[in-house]
Design a protein that fits this description.
Length: about 120
């Protein structure tokens, strides 16, 4: 049996390692970081139990059916809905800016026409 050493436990290293191991190779993966997943690593915050994207936010998206089938062999994927919020002066506002944002920001109950006049 051939021994393979892979440097880096991110997606690249992990996928190559998994494929080689499936083909019968003995694979060792090393990484300088104390976790797998490279820059896609997530962990649960101990206080809030919220999933944190440690190196920046990551969304998995693909239009390739083979990739989608392949990745689902390893875990269950959570659906993703993109709801963008902005924080200003201690309050949270919806984005992109719409009538609700304007009413939230100025503490008003404008109709669309009133909001237009107010902004102008
Ligand atoms: C902020 C941010 C947001 C992103 N958002 C998305 C997204 O939404 N969707 C998406 O598909 N992609 C996203 N990406 C890109 C995605 O993170 C990368 O495509 C993916 O992580 C690449 O995987 P990789 O295995 O090639 O490299 P990496 O994830 O970088 O993993 C490489 C690993 O190798 C290790 N390593 C490097 N050198 C050595 C060494 N000499 N010795 C030991 N270990 C070493 C590193 O510690 C690391 O763990 C984003 C990237 C960033 C930074």
């Amino acid at each position: 049996m051939r021994n393979i050493c892979i440097v880096g436990a991110g997606f690249s290293g992990a996928v190559i390692a998994q494929e080689l191991a499936t083909d019968g190779f003995k694979v060792t993966i090393v990484d300088t970081r104390p976790h797998v997943a490279g820059n896609c690593y997530t962990r649960r915050d101990t206080n809030t139990d919220i999933m944190l994207h440690v190196y920046g936010p990551h969304i998995f998206h693909t239009s390739n059916e083979d990739v989608w089938k392949y990745i689902q062999k390893f875990d269950t994927f959570m659906p993703f809905i993109n709801r963008v919020k902005a924080q200003a002066k201690g309050c949270v506002y919806s984005l992109p800016i719409n009538l609700l944002t304007i009413n939230q920001l100025f503490n008003k109950q404008f109709s669309p026409l009133q909001a237009k006049e107010f902004i102008e």
